[in-house]
Amino acid sequence: MIRKYILPALALAGVILGIVVSFQGAKSVPPAKPVASPAHSPYSAFVAGAGIIEASTENIAIGTTVGGVVAHIAVQIGSQVKAGDPLFTLDDRTHRAEIALRENTVKVVEAQLADARDELAFNENVGDKGAVSAEDTNKRRNAVRITEAQLAQAKAQLASAQTELEKLTVRAPVSGQVLQIKIHLGEYAPAGMLSTPLMMLGSVDPLYVRADVDEDDAWRIRSGAVATGSLRGNKDISTPLKFVRFEPYVLPKRSLTGDSTERVDTRVLQVIFSFTRGDLPLFVGQQMNVFIDAPTRTFKPVTGQPSVEVKS
Question: N or C: the chain end with fewer CB closer than 10 Å?
Fold first, then answer.
């Protein structure tokens, strides 16, 4: 009796549930609202590119030619420095001991040279020339030359030790702002080129924008082109851009926008623009939407073919 009524009821419930699920799945899902409104070009005809803000000196990766333990850091993130200012210093106790040893060596050789010169002067100034042999005088003269050479060598070794000591203090190569610090007191700073630099430095007055322009549009841009940059994520934060230069080598695309229609197998021309930050909340490393004014013009690719009018 139970099977006679329950099983058909369960089957009917399953059919109804399937119908409900199919109807719900057939409903169109409204598209998600964008996090920020897209930026719009202020020009009627333009070329767009993805840009990234960088220092006008480019972002300089600071390293050291010798490895060592960090003993002192002279700057902080955001510090303004001048060319030649110390950034950080490595442990220099061994090198200072070496310099002290070299300085003592120089003093000893200088004393030996003074004695050798006195002995030579005595032989050369003796009244009775027969009292001193010419051979003895020549030996003393050679002793002075040898000691002078030893002194020159000792001074060269001292200068070399002082140079090695100077290498332990890493200085700013240009005037600018400290953008990043990735070392701490007591840590070992390795020498050479690193994937993560010990410090990042660059001039931020003015700032530069490196815009990637698709190779298909690169031919439309001319030197001195007017452009506008809008901050990625807030189109209301924008600034006029001043043309600086082209990077003459067209390279594979690396800066991706995330657009589903974006091609990653293309190459881009990098165009450098400058702007003054002023009170704008813009920082090195932020992305910008760059719109470059490209006036409408006629382009005839091959003689005999119809002209093509290009707008945007």
Answer: N
